[in-house]
């Protein structure tokens, strides 16, 4: 798979579709690229690949930050296996009682998060 270099903004599907429509009308690559608002090189790349930008994007296969629940996740799974009706807020509150310095439940309606660094105040989604 050929990935495009990040020199400028990633082209949107509509821009590439417009370039392809212009090419189908018989326009040259230069004309189609100009009408779609992209460089000739970018037009050539998308034409060669035959795919839209949304089809080229690959899902991230790595974590962008450490998993804050890695150590507690087996406990969370065991609690859910014991009682699958448990809510995320209940589990989070239970984790807060187990680790009071590391996890803190924030009441809804607060506009700013004043948690010290390293203290979790929400349950991030797991992938």
Mind sketching the topology for me?
Layout: H1 13-24, H2 29-36, H3 40-49, H4 53-56, H5 73-82, H6 88-98
Helix pairs in contact: 1-2, 2-3
Describe this protein's structure.
The chain has 127 residues and is an all-alpha fold. The protein has two domains: 13-56; 62-127, no CATH class. The protein contains six helices and no strands. Helix 1 (13-24) packs antiparallel against helix 2 (29-36). The chain is rod-shaped. The protein starts with 12 loop residues before the first helix and ends in a 29-residue tail after the last helix.
Short description:
The chain is mainly α.
Please indicate the count of domains: 2
Q: How does the major sheet shape up? A: none
Mean pLDDT across every amino acid position: 81
Number of helices: 6
Give a count of the beta strands, DSSP E runs of length 2 or more: 0
The helix-and-strand class reads: mainly alpha
Strand content: under 5%
Please state the overall shape, judged from the principal axes of the Cα atoms: rod-shaped
| Helix fraction bin | 40-55%
| Uncertain stretches of 5 or more adjacent residues | none
- Topology as H/E string? HHHHHH
Gyration radius from CA atoms, angstroms: 24 Å
Q: Report, as a whole number of angstroms, the end-to-end distance.
A: 24 Å
